[in-house]
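ok trying this again, last paste got cut off
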Amino acid sequence: MSQAYNHFNVTFPAPYVAHVEINRPEKLNAFYQEMWLEYAKVFNTLSHSPDVRSIILSGAGSTFTTGLDIQKTNLAFPGSDGARKAWGIRRSVVELQECVSASEKCEKPVICVLHGFCLGLAIDIACATDIRISSADAKLAVKEVDIGLAADVGTLSRLPKVVGSLSWVKDVAFSARMFNPQEALRVGFVSAVESDKAAAVNKAIEMASLIAAKSPVAVQGTKAIVNWSVDRTVADGLAYTQAWNAAALQTEDVGEAVGGTLGKRKTRFEKL
């Protein structure tokens, strides 16, 4: 599978593993409208590809992303009165929110590699992925209050659920202060910290390859059930799992997985 993008590199470093690189290093991978629309296109395409079972996201060059490119982002909204301007602002925010949510809605697990500067939109993007790892040099910040607004692309909704400490979330969101990978690891924002970007990407490939070797029916079902259950009661999650697995347990992958484990052999699962 091969497709050219203007601002993203997509490569395949291991079987069933895709690596998406934000590719605007000359501007520190800062986003503008064309980029976030293309970001959604990349993840929607990979979501439906039977040749992909797990995805890595990183930035080309030394930086993950410094967030929005203010110079190329139109912050002037047309309208003859306040209500009409409000509708224009809302439509723009909805568009960006939906594009960033593409990695969360993607059927495949997404591993985010944070490195270099990870500011503003970087945290929105990272929160919408499934697993986060960091290089030791990463400099992270929920930066939006420093440009006069509340983060509006997902951080304030997702980050409290990711880390489980509302006090810490408010600390970094109110102050816009930098926090380092060790602090991110301590609160649970990232799962691992590696020595540098290359080591972090290699760790991500190792993790993605392990995931890609499992049954895609099982892995993609697990992501769907976990994401659905996060905002609901345990009883609702159990009921959803019952309905999901009533269909999914009929897969031949169960027999292959069990047979591989008992026979101590490598398993092979059909594309999904």
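PB: full thing came through this time. The chain has two domains: 8-212, 216-263.
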